[in-house]
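Predict structure. Chain length: 525.
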Amino acid sequence: MLKTSFIIIILSFWNSCNDEINFEINENLLEFSKDTVYLDTVFTNIGSSTYNLKVYNNSSDNIIIPEIKLANGQGSYYRLNVDGIYNQNDENGKRFENIELLANDSLYIFVETTIDINEINNLQQSFLYQDKIEFLNLNNTQYVELVTLVKDAVFIYPERYEDNQDYTYETLSIDFNGDGVNEETNIRGRFLTNEELNFTNEKPYVIYGYAAVNSGDELIIEKGSRIHFHENSGIIITEGASIKTYGEISLDSELYENEVIFEGDRLEPSFEDIPGQWGAIWLLNGSIENEFNYTTIKNSSIGIYTVGGQNDFEYQLSLKNVKIFNSSNFGVLARSSSIFAENTIISKSGQSSFAATYGGNYDLNHCTISNYWNLGLRQYPSLLVNNFFIDSDENEFVNENFQLSISNSIITGNQNIELLIEQLGNQNLDFNFINSLIKFNDVSDYFSDEINYDFSNSEKYNNIYLNLNASFIEPFENDLRIDQNSEIIGLGSIEFAEITPFDILNTNRLNSPDLGAYQHIIIVD
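Prediction complete.
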């Protein structure tokens, strides 16, 4: 038995030696999945996503690649990871030696970059940074180009403090109740200085944490401005403060050169329509005369959250020619607030596109309130209105001040019920819908006995069009234009069209107004 075991051990050793893999210095040409790696646009000093390059050994030999390196050496702003190896020989991802690659096999190279535009070019606001990955073998050197567009930006961020090798961040103290007493919060952010209250279109803005506007201050945002938010970031307008965006209609329907755009700070195309990348524009109780003109707000948690202002002489919030898309929760969430909106489009929200809660005063004309959320289930319809608030202890608070007027508008989406009116108390809610499309397909007759859904009541519903096909161009892609097949063409009231005589694309609608923010267009097959 002992002799047999010894023979098995000897044979196993002989086989392992016989199976040893031999590698030779590469003499053949490698092949690559691409000849140029284009890294998407990045802001200065912000790390890019990770991009990959595949390297193929299509020969029948196991090879060693003597050297893989960046042409700019240690001065390169790129960094590499070669098949899981990052920091070989303390080269910081810039140079690698003797990389083994089996016959007819491949390996991955991962590429990232962080670039300080001021170190390489301080004369332009964007700069094309280039380098090469060099693959050296016995006979030649092969190259793969690396290209990145770098944008300069204005960065707004809270202070960071070091404490025993740990970091803490500046947080905001805010008067939430209007009683003159600031409350300490855990909200990372800071108040804008006087020099920061005018956003221009010269450079994009990148905000970390919440940028707050102090009482008595006004944040002015010029046409063509681009505001980008990091995760869990946004803008807070405090009591006595205001925000005004002065966007204008754009000539280029892809560049939107004159619009003001709020979005996240991830510039890769794969993040272009991802909801919930940043927090909200938060209008606190007592903020005044907030105005948004020709503005797009996209990919937030809540597009605009506005609190209070229902008794103000002027509307707390005015929306004119505004688009709010891809909000992971609400497009507009209002609580006891006051809003005037015209030519405003809100769609693709994880909950409601427009939620007028706990009463308030709301006037919407020629608006498209829709919801084609397709990233999971949603609990609420496109338009949610109610007159109450229930706190965490289940205490109910009813607001008797409730006024809602919606005219020449569209309320629709991809659910059967896209209007929900919730009520506590015996108060007669003051609302009316005039010359508007409402999607309300109550297939189970769940709401048949609810007086707030008596569509024959002309005091509440006047010239209402139930469940018509708006015929949007691409509703799931947020293209809410209507085509020539729409059933809502010419159904608008001239009286309300005169309040908003031009649609969001500056098309005159007075001759025959369509419902919603757009006049119809002709699509040629």
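Summary: Residues 124 and 152 are 8 Å apart (CA to CA).
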